[in-house]
Amino acid sequence: MSKIRVYEYAKEKNVSSKEIINKLKDMNVEVSNHMSMINDTAKDKLDKSFTAKSAGSEKVAIKTGNSANTSNSANNGQNNKPKGKSGGGQNRSQQRGGNNRPGKGGQNRRGGRNNNRSQKPQQKRPAMPTPDKITFKGSLAVSELAAKLHRESAEIIKKLFLQGVMATKNQELDKDAIELICAEYDVEVEEEVDVDVTDLDNYKIEDKEDDLQERPAVVTIMGHVDHGKTTLLDSIRDTKVTEGEAGGITQHIGAYQIEENGKKITFLDTPGHAAFTSMRSRGAQVTDIAILVVAADDGVMPQTVEAINHAKAAEVPIIIAVNKIDLEGANPDRVMQELTEHGLIPEDWGGDTIFVQLSAKKREGIDDLLEMILLVTEVEELKANPNRPAEGTVIEAQLDKGRGPVATLLVQNGTMHVGDSIVVGHSYGRVRAMVNDLGRRVKTAAPSTPVEITGLNSVPNAGDQFMVFKDEKQARQVGEAKQQRQVEENRSSGARVSLDDLFNQIKQGEVKDINLIVKADVHGSVEAMAASLEKIEVEGVKVRIIHTGVGAITESDVILASASNAIIIGFNVRPDTNAKKAAESENVDIRQHRIIYKVIEEIESAMKGMLDPEFEEKVIGQAEVREIFKVSRIGTIAGSYVTEGKITRDASIRVIRDSVVIVEDEIDSLKRFKDDVREVATNYECGITLKSFHDLKEGDTFEAYVMEEIERK
Ligand SMILES: Nc1nc2c(ncn2[C@@H]2O[C@H](COP(=O)(O)OP(=O)(O)OP(=O)(O)O)[C@@H](O)[C@H]2O)c(=O)[nH]1
């Protein structure tokens, strides 16, 4: 038995030694380098793999009609046989001999075929085995499908033709056509779909039927204005929540849970159907049962009908609470009658709608209502798997000054634990602390439980989906990808909210919340302003304060504004240089004010479409105070250096100290040396005195601005 070294074999086959080493490794034959010996068994295997390979390459040769090349390359292989190794193994000489002895073609298929082919090239193409399965993305051209099936395009074209489809080689075939053709060859087809890493649906865990357990119903109370939604929610909470929970302080977290006959019911504590609908518009379905409150003295009103339609669209069972039956003018029968017109027919009248008569104010009939809720819950067979990572929906979220982003989450499946890694809408983090509706810290939250959590890196939106990930790293990756996606979407949409076109965007339904970032010089102002701004509501559009802070407007404020489509309000503070640049490139609107009511007025009138800025402030230059001269008769002269733009005699001046506007004033005198001048340009020194403010300090900055009339769009 003779042996051959890797490099020799490689040379013989006209391939690199590396390729041979890899092939041997694939065959589990250990070789250390190109000098290693290949034993006979391994060589046999290698020979076979080369035979198979060359059979495959023949297809190409035939296709190009260049059969001579194929034979040449076979010859080359022989010619490259290492010298001095003539005894180079019987195997080799046998194989080579195969070429010389066509009659024994079976020993060397390649050689045999080559010879045959040179006689009858058209017939000799070997059929590559049809694959068991092919994969594709989107669509395939006929030629691509042919290649995947190891067939000629003509064959596929013919098959298509027989199926009544006229196609050319380059024609794109859709999924159906691909499947049809593959079915003829008994080949399985799999469509490769790009997985969207930001889509939480891709991470959803399917529960086995056996793992599902009963869960409490999540109930929303809807109805017309003043029909008693809040009173009903309050009376349910007051009568039930504190029972057995002595000392429990109810807390408004957007939802609460009560217990009736040993069973829990979760109420979304957001009166009106606004929450219900806005969540649904985000694709979140949190409600299992809708309670429709109708005042017995008022009957069916426009919002009652709206509520019915929303509940029907969401395919949520409706229980009618006929409220205020304590009133003299109460007429429950009329309510029932009116509701039949909307397909809600009481059981007594042959329908299947549950009606409960109650007085939310007098707390009568509450137990009946709860009993009916439990009944519907049973019928609906509401289930979840508590033994898996949690997922659900954001009920409410806001930024808390002390605790950072705070979100009330409704766990809809699984159980949430403190410490869980979580992705919530576009934010993510680890559940730092969980508080229930009684204000108590809890460690776990089972299905249908509302909990308030902290630990997120930003404020999510109501209606956002959340999901707990077992792997913290994965949670972070998904969260970061989602955040990045949002930044890109906002950037590409280019439709940043600016106060000037806010009204149009509201009208077109593009804006539902106005996100604001509030920066001010002192805590008190931030708080006062945030509180007043949050109260503004025009046409159902609300102000949402997503971030507040004390100090200059920074680049990170601008980036946050850009990512969340927010407007920045600076109260007595300015953007620093980087923030200015970022705001320009990111197209973020920064509004600067010195009087609180002006801020409120501006936002409110912008929302009403009445923003009418006829004049706009234009900053024309900046100067740095380098030296202070106190002159008894004149006051304080600020020896200044113009760093940007120009300072003009008639400009208004803001004095900025540590990024905070400390005063606004007028120029009293502007001098170059001893002369009064009308303006001083960049890189020139000048002496400035102000009309009323004299407490200037070295390092102060003068910002010069003029009011310019602007053209309205
Ligand atoms: N007599 C009587 N008055 C009630 C009853 N329920 C509510 N009210 C009164 O009706 C008025 C409106 O009640 P709310 O609970 O604020 O009504 P609402 O539907 O939440 O109203 P909006 O929040 O404005 O949509 C209040 O003055 C309540 O005291 C009731 O059962 N009987």
TrEMBL record:
Keywords: Cytoplasm, GTP-binding, Initiation factor, Nucleotide-binding, Protein biosynthesis
Ranges for region Disordered: 51-134
Sequence positions that bind GTP: 223-230, 269-273, 323-326
Keyword Protein biosynthesis: yes
Principal subcellular localisation of the protein: cytoplasm
Purpose of the protein: One of the essential components for the initiation of protein synthesis. Protects formylmethionyl-tRNA from spontaneous hydrolysis and promotes its binding to the 30S ribosomal subunits. Also involved in the hydrolysis of GTP during the formation of the 70S ribosomal complex.
Listed name of the protein: Translation initiation factor IF-2
Organism: Terribacillus aidingensis
Gene giving rise to this polypeptide: infB
